[in-house]
Specification:
The chain has 14 helices and 13 strands. Strand 3, helix 6 and strand 4 form a beta-alpha-beta unit. The chain binds pyridoxal-5'-phosphate (PLP) and (2S)-2-amino-4-(2-amino-3-hydroxyphenyl)-4-oxobutanoic acid. Pyridoxal-5'-phosphate binds next to helix 5 and helix 6. The site of (2S)-2-amino-4-(2-amino-3-hydroxyphenyl)-4-oxobutanoic acid has 3 residues, from loops.
């Protein structure tokens, strides 16, 4: 049996970590926080930044701030494009929620592929995506084809490519699967869909800010994603959407609001969509929520997604190494792809008592999360998570497993897991 990484070695890795200094740019405490893929930590600069905006922008300038604020969906979208998406200026806009953006772009894509009746998606896709597509298919008489996918390994890419027939209008996929963390080859899938004339709409919620993306080089047409996970924009931060520049003019989204209108303040008679990415906006942007993205993106820009990914892979490897050694003998099983190149930033473990174990972990100062039916999900965000945090979390998990400490934890359901 090989020796496991010791706590001292984990501390040495932290001492040598080029991103270690960035942890100080977040509000941190003793908590082993491994849920950065659900809600990222608070950047230290965000509170002051928002307080200044409330005081000066809202409190003093009032409506005179709008000429500045109105540019922010695009300005901040361009920052996300540059620092996290590998996209060009004018291709990304911040607006609405991921759910709403997915609806807008999926509907626009279906309109752009008349005569094709099939929408493809992963049967294990995040629920909001499945529900939205179910609704769209019902409204339009399309067939939603949900491809079976493995709970531990994600969608098989070869099966997906084989399912791409001439009748497929739209494929909706997560680059990183929310449950098991499986990572798809964005460029390869996009190219395969293009060969049959289908559009792919990527949900990048669990990839953005964790996995380096190169949307322009990969030929991606459409994408959406959350900003409150690895982009650290805060609870309910507005989402982003991406539309390849060359496609924008040919797409019409279904919610015709005044922020999507050309020459908005001329308040003209009929709807005429704006020429740029603004055509995918709807109504007044949530200025305070959007503003929180600026300090958060400053940190990511300083880190660079390549360095984030390098550390994220090592954090995942440490979880898997210690799980193999300490937890598998207690009935746990790895529920994520083992190969780092096939995995995003989080690692899931299967155990029949995963719900109660996740609750016992919280009591032990470790926050991960539980996902149905029986997965413990650990998402160590590289910008602020130390190797020693992962080591300590796994050590406490080992202790819980050895003592079967979850037997004392109540089983009653809670509204949010
Ligand atoms: C893959 C994925 N898509 C969409 C969402 C939901 O987006 P929202 O609730 O912000 O619309 C989430 C997380 O909540 C997610 O993990
Ligand atoms: N958006 C969330 C919320 O409003 C409440 C609780 C959790 C979330 C999440 O983001 C969950 C996350 N998308 C997931 O992958 O499960």
């Amino acid at each position: 049996m090989t020796a496991q990484t010791s706590r001292r070695v984990a501390q040495e890795w932290d001492a040598a970590d080029p991103l270690a200094g960035l942890r100080d740019r977040f509000v941190v405490d003793d908590l082993c926080y491994l849920d950065g893929n659900s809600l990222g930590r608070l950047p230290s600069a965000t509170g002051g930044h928002l307080a200044g905006l409330v005081r000066d922008g809202w409190g003093t300038e009032l409506v005179r701030s709008w000429p500045t604020w109105i540019e922010w969906p695009r300005r901040i979208g361009d920052r996300i494009a540059a620092h996290a998406l590998g996209a060009r200026e004018g291709e990304v806009i911040v607006s609405d929620s991921t759910s709403v953006n997915l609806y807008k772009l999926a509907a626009a894509a279906l309109d752009a592929r008349p005569g094709r009746g099939t929408i493809l998606a992963d049967a294990e896709e995040f629920p909001t995506d499945r529900y939205l597509l179910e609704g769209l298919a019902a409204q339009r008489g399309h067939t939603l084809r949900l491809l079976p996918s493995d709970l531990d390994e994600g969608l098989d890419q070869a099966t997906l490519v084989e399912s791409l027939t001439e009748d497929v209008a739209l494929v909706v996929l997560s680059a990183v699967s929310y449950r098991c963390g499986a990572l798809l080859d964005v460029a390869a899938v996009t190219a395969a869909a293009r060969r049959v004339g289908a559009l792919v709409l990527w949900d990048l919620s669990h990839a953005v800010g964790s996995v380096p993306l190169a949307l322009t080089d990969a030929g991606v047409d459409l994408a959406v994603g959350c900003t409150y996970k690895y982009l650290n924009g805060g609870p309910g931060a507005p989402a982003f959407l991406y539309v390849r520049r060359e496609l924008q003019e040919s797409l019409r989204q279904p919610i015709w609001g005044w922020f999507g209108q050309r020459d908005q303040f001329r308040m003209g008679a009929g709807y005429d969509p704006a020429p740029g990415p603004e055509r995918f906006l709807v109504g007044t942007p949530p200025v305070l929520g959007m503003a929180a993205l600026d300090p958060a993106l400053d940190v990511l820009a300083d880190a660079g997604t390549d360095r984030v990914r390098e550390k994220s892979v090592r954090l995942g490897e440490l979880i898997i190494e210690l799980a193999d050694a300490w937890l598998v003998p207690h009935g746990f099983r790895l529920a994520s792809p083992r190969e780092p190149g096939r995995r995003g930033g989080h690692v899931s473990l299967h155990h029949p008592e995963a719900l109660r174990i996740s609750r016992a972990l919280v009591d032990a100062g470790v926050v991960g999360d539980y996902r149905v039916p029986d997965r413990l999900r650990l998402g160590p965000a590289a910008l602020y998570t130390r190797y020693v945090d992962v080591w300590d979390a796994m050590d406490r998990l080992r202790d819980i497993a050895e003592r079967q400490a979850w037997t004392a934890v109540p089983t009653e359901p809670s509204r949010v897991t």
